[in-house]
SDR family oxidoreductase (Antarcticimicrobium sediminis), 259 residues
Amino acid sequence: MDLGISGKRALVCASSKGLGLGCAEALAAEGVNLVMNARGVEALEASAQAIRDAHGVDVVTVACDVTTPEGQAAVLEAAEGADILVNNAGGPPPGLWTDWEREDFIKALDSNMLTPITFIKGLVPAMMERGWGRVVNITSQAVRAPIPVLGLSNAARTGLTGYVAGTARQVANTGVTINNLLPGIHATDRADALDSGVAKQQGISIEDARAQRCVGIPAGRYGTRQEFGAACAFLCSQHAGFIVGQNVLLDGGGVNLTM
Ligand code: NAP
């Protein structure tokens, strides 16, 4: 299927690895030019070059922390006029409800709620003027089914979800869609870190921790960044113009809900 977005320009935040990289790769495969971002320069440049080599698209890189005002200004400058925005950043650490103080919540809100809102406010007005735009926020299955040890993530991402629910409907008549993609467990560095945490906590091997976490996934495996990226590219396509304000679970069936 031709997604009809060749020649468009996308900002993909936090995209040197993992799910963000999957989205950048899938968009590039459709002929979309990219602004890619991450804090670490080396992995960012390597991923950007691999995408240029594989797909022949233009890729601009901005190495910075997207959760800081300086980082956001640098990314917004490079991405001015972007047609597509994929919001992403690292997830907050796991813990117990008693572990978290005001500062921890502020940090989580900055990363997983206020940063995506800043980019939406920065880029969506020009998309509205042009009459076309796509925004995809990478959130988490925890928005539908909160994960107890991820209290900071549950709190911040649910806040973003509420904001998007209203905003998506306020801009929909201008040709701009805003949706959320909710990953279940995918095989990325983040999943490795959480597997290591489970292994350490329970005194088991990482392989056993992984097998234990797979038990809760009807598909019997972790998702891949390629599968995730393909779903993102579809939401950014011409065909997805009537999909507005949705929360799309990509979790191998892990969250058992009828709606
Ligand atoms: P990952 O494999 O650890 O990759 C994270 C990417 O984001 C890297 O490129 C990293 O590069 C970049 N990054 C992190 N913090 C950043 C920041 N402040 N500014 C700019 N770039 C930043 O993580 P992932 O698995 O793809 O996860 C992506 C998001 O999905 C996270 O919020 C995660 O919590 C959420 N999620 C993941 C899963 C899963 O199973 N993988 C499930 C549910 C939700 P640098 O470190 O160099 O900056």
